[in-house]
Design a protein that fits this description.
It is built from eleven helices and eight strands. It is globular, with a radius of gyration of 19 Å. The chain is of the alpha/beta class. Strand 5, helix 6 and strand 6 (about 125-130) form a beta-alpha-beta unit. Bound molecules: erythose-4-phosphate (E4P). Erythose-4-phosphate (E4P) binds near residues 26, 108, 128, 165 and 184.
């Protein structure tokens, strides 16, 4: 399973990239607003130059024709841009046009297998089931990830699944078990994935023992 960072925070992206385990980034309007980016275009271009891999940037239009125009513009900013399109009828129409033009898309705000089937048929490059938001309302978000992966495998479709709306490290473990191709994680969750109290304790004990030997 590949890992993307789910953030628009430039410092977090730089820090995360240094680990050598991040291959892409997903952003959305809320994340751009949280990171206080006033210039959408320059923020996305900067993120693309740091990441050098797929960077999802959301189209804000609601009507298919306008989404297509916006997506063409977004994708002209960098070859790394993947255009996020929401799971609506207008969105499906836009994705089916964009896929024929070779513009990479990420079907976002996906909450059902039906939406995923339609997105894959329309030619979405990625589909993002929002696991945490489904869990929040008492559904099993990871079961949806698993169902989408099975459906894509069964029909031999090339769309890749991004487990999104990841809230904690156990979501990442479950995403691996569900067969997600990618998980997009906040920087804090990435750090939680690295850390383990027994690793910290183990390092401290090794150092103590080594220093004791030096004193003997
Ligand atoms: C994914 O592409 C979205 O940016 C993100 O995962 C949404 O997560 P949230 O539900 O924590 O806002």
């Amino acid at each position: 399973m590949r890992l993307f960072l789910d953030t628009a925070d430039i410092d977090d992206i730089r820090r995360g990239m240094k680990l050598g385990v991040i291959t892409g980034v997903t952003t959305n309007p809320s994340l751009l607003s949280k990171a206080k980016h006033v210039d959408y275009k320059s923020a996305i271009i900067e993120i693309c130059s740091i990441v050098g891999g797929p960077v999802s940037a959301e189209a804000l239009s609601q009507e298919a024709g306008a989404m297509v125009e916006e997506a063409r513009d977004l994708s002209s900013w960098s070859p790394h841009v993947v255009v996020k399109i929401p799971c609506t009828a207008q969105g499906m129409e836009a994705i089916s046009i964009l896929s024929k033009e070779g513009i990479a898309t990420n079907l976002t705000l996906c909450f059902s297998l039906n939406q995923a089937i339609l997105g894959a048929q329309a030619g979405a490059t990625y589909i993002s089931p929002f696991v945490g938001r489904l869990d929040d309302i008492g559904h099993d978000g990871m079961e949806l990830v698993s169902d989408i992966v099975d459906m894509l495998d069964y029909y031999d479709l090339s769309t890749r699944v991004i487990a999104a709306s990841i809230r904690h490290p156990m979501h990442c473990v479950a995403a691996v078990k569900a067969g997600a191709h990618i998980a997009t994680v906040p920087y804090g969750v990435l750090m939680q994935m690295v850390e383990h109290p027994l690793t910290t304790q183990g390092i401290a004990r090794f150092l103590e023992d080594w220093q004791r030997l030096a004193k003997d």
